[in-house]
Amino acid sequence: MSTDEPTADDVTPDEVSGEETTVAQSDEPVLSVEDVKVHYKPGGIVKRALTDKKVRAVDGVSFDLYENDIVVLVGESGCGKTTLGKTAVGLEKPTEGTVSYRGQDIWEAKENPREAETEFTEIRRAMQIIHQDPANALNSSRRVKAILSDPLKKWRTELGPKEREDTIYRYLEYVDMMPPEDYAERYPHQLSGGEKQRVALGRALLMNPDVILADEAISALDVSLRVGMMDLILDLQETFDTSYVFISHDLANARYLAKRAGGRIAIMYLGEIVEIGPPEEILRNPTHPYTKVLKWSTPTVDPNLARERIQEDPPVREVDVPDPEDPPSGCKFHTRCPEAREVCTREEPGLYDTAGESDAACFRALETHEYWNSDELAGPDDEYGAESESGFGD
Length: 394
Ligand code: SF4
Hints:
There is one protein chain. The protein is of the alpha/beta class. It folds into three domains: 8-135 and 208-284, Rossmann fold (3-Layer(aba) Sandwich); 136-207, no CATH class; 289-373, no CATH class. It contains 14 helices and twelve strands. It has helices spanning 45-50, 81-88, 106-111, 120-126, 134-137, 144-155, 161-174, 180-184, 193-206, 223-240, 251-261, 279-284, 289-297, 303-311, and strands at residues 29-40, 55-66, 70-74, 96-101, 104-105, 127-130, 211-215, 243-248, 264-269, 272-277, 352-353, 359-360. The strands form two sheets. The protein has an eight-stranded mixed β-sheet with strand order 6-7-8-3-9-10-12-11, sandwiched between helices. Strands 2-1-4-5 form a four-stranded antiparallel β-sheet. The two termini are 29 Å apart. The relative contact order is 0.14. The structure holds iron/sulfur cluster. Residues 288-289, 331, 333-334, 337, 339-340, 344, 349, 362-364 line the site of iron/sulfur cluster. This is Oligopeptide/dipeptide ABC transporter ATP-binding protein. Belongs to the ABC transporter superfamily. Residues 1-28, 312-332, 372-394 are annotated as: Disordered. InterPro entries: AAA+_ATPase, ABC_transp_ATP-bind, ABC_transporter-like_ATP-bd, ABC_transporter-like_CS, Oligopep_ABC_C, P-loop_NTPase.
């Protein structure tokens, strides 16, 4: 990592740098998520049997991921980003809609293999996941060498023991674990959190995947290590031609990843993508009022801005997130949205082109929508009806 790259503290919506990657993205998507819904009954067996209610964890989401692309899913806890990520890589079956790998419906490949052009086992290999907590993902009773041997024994059967060992050492070098002969003999408890996450990244790359789902993969690391891990992921993206669905609650990290990789940020709220676009557009010129809320709640290193924010109320009508079992009618954000008007309580917005480069699920993106003649909603308590303490962020 060069010395002029940003520290974690620099990576804020106000200030970001870092060289953009130069690998071209493909014309055809490697992964297509089309109108995907994941609904399930909440609670345990008894509650599920007694209720007709459903949690709409993901509620009509579409996006494409191209080769060498990154889409960072950002939102508050419980917004559905992890469920969407798992559904996108075939770990969870959608209730409705399709997920396709290079044009092949993943679930058709699994359930109707005779009709499929791509085998499900090949799709499984091509889609890997890095979890938030590598300690749970790595078998504590096995050495790093044994952990990394498993995918090679399964997918690279042509390799003999010596070639397998050489490959493991090479991948440990890729993830900056030097000397590899030393790290290969260690158990997970002999590694730091950052080193465990590097082993998890190396294991995922050993499968030569097309897509990696990184589920809060840097959240458990010390702040001082996060930029280094993000840089390693981005450098190896160029080496391995891999695409990422990255899940983060942190808009600053999302911006860093998406900006360097020429990717997009997708803002999620109550199971829907409410805005998607290039990081600079999302951060500097957000269209959706919820994107503005996330930006407002992201820590800043600018002392003046930080001071201003302490004195401001959060830009919402209500701080509390609605019950996902009983979401609001119309636009799901209308109970919290400071711009909400009467039409927002009964009509659901689609994802519209904005004047900038993003798409946003807000009537305000449409110059001629009836929204502009609709009655404003009265605030619950005061101008915004907001409480004084912010409930945002994790
Ligand atoms: S559609 Fe209405 S309630 Fe929804 S985000 Fe836009 S202004 Fe707010």
